[in-house]
Amino acid sequence: MTSVSHRASAAVLIAAALLAPVWGQSAKGAREYDLKATFLFHFTHFVEWPPEAFAAAESPFRLCVLSPDPFGGSLKEAVADERVGARELEVRTVESASQAKGCQIVFVPDQRDSALVRELPGVRDGMVLTVGEREDFLDRGGMVRFELRGSRLRLQVSRRALGASQLQVSSKLLAVADME
Question: Is the CATH number 3.40.50 carried by domain 3-179?
């Protein structure tokens, strides 16, 4: 699949997921985290990281989840055998902010304090896409927040946090998000 058609299909998937209800599950149900896993993977197609975000040219792309990992196996399944450009895609569960060194995306689950976003290596340099769930996540410096509205999963994006970063976010992704 070409890069353009892959990005177009990812845009359709993101728009469909935003409009799709989280069928038959509780607010923390499996369907919700399957969708969130898919979003996290597709963020790799809609965000560009500067070369300095990687330790070396051959370094893998790291998608990290602060524990406790709410995804079960769905995140690893969503990214199985996938690449980000020429880079291998690696999923890691980390216990602390300091263990997230070298991660390009860090997911902060609802069970963790949003304030630790500022402690993540690379955040001050604007090299890490931070994604979380807590209501105060964007106010505490996070970039993207998953919000469950009724039975629909929505994205909220912090203009301030993205503007302070070195990441380039596609207008297609921003078009389907609520800007804060």
Answer: yes
- Which one-letter DSSP state was computed for residue 60? P
Residues ≥6 apart with Cβ < 8 Å to 11: 46, 172, 176
Answer for the pair 153, 178: CB distance below 8 angstroms, yes or no. Answer: no
Enter the tokens of residue 29: 């149900």
**Whole-structure pTM value:** 0.85
The answer to whether 48 touches 167, Cβ cutoff 8 Å, is yes
Could you tell me which residues are beta bridge partners of residue 47? Answer: 169
Q: What is the pLDDT of residues 2-51, one digit of tens each?
A: 444 444 555 545 555 444 444 333 444 568 999 999 999 999 999 999 99
